[in-house]
Amino acid sequence: MQDIEACHCPFCGSTQNHLAEIEPSHGIVECEGCGAIGPAGATRTAAVAAWNRRVRARPYQLVGE
Ligand SMILES: [Zn+2]
């Protein structure tokens, strides 16, 4: 499978985001810096794409909103 690099974390700015498998057919990006978890995707690729879209759409967001 092709590896895709996720954008930096919109919460803490960490570039250490990694893709964590939550189910055999699902993926979700989790930030190793602050523990933020991105939108789950049907595939690892979709999870990364969803994370990257969120970063571009909402580069800064207060926790709890
Ligand atoms: Zn983070």
Task: Tell me what the structure shows.
This protein has one helix spanning 44-57; strands at 18-23, 26-30. The chain is an alpha+beta fold. It has one domain. Strands 1-2 form a two-stranded antiparallel ribbon. The longest helix is centred in the C-terminal third of the chain and has 14 residues, at 44-57. Zinc ion binds next to loops.
List keywords for this structure.
single chain, alpha+beta, two-stranded antiparallel ribbon, 1 helix, 17% strand, binds zinc ion
List the helices and strands and how they pair.
Elements (H helix, E strand, L loop, with lengths): L17 E6 L2 E5 L13 H14 L8
Antiparallel strand pairs: 1-2
Zinc ion (ZN) binds next to loops.
Q: Count every beta strand, where a strand is a DSSP E run of 2 or more residues.
A: 2
**Alpha-carbon distance between the two ends:** 35 Å
Global Rg: 11 Å
Q: Please work out how many helical segments DSSP would assign.
A: 1
Largest sheet, if any?
2 strands, antiparallel
Overall average residue pLDDT: 79
Order of helices and strands: EEH
Bulk shape: globular
- Percent strand equals 15-25%
Quaternary structure annotation: single chain
Domain count, please report it.
1
Q: Would you identify the regions where 5 or more consecutive residues have pLDDT less than 50?
A: none
Structural class assignment: alpha+beta
* Strand arrangement, major sheet: 1-2
List the ligand species. Answer: zinc ion
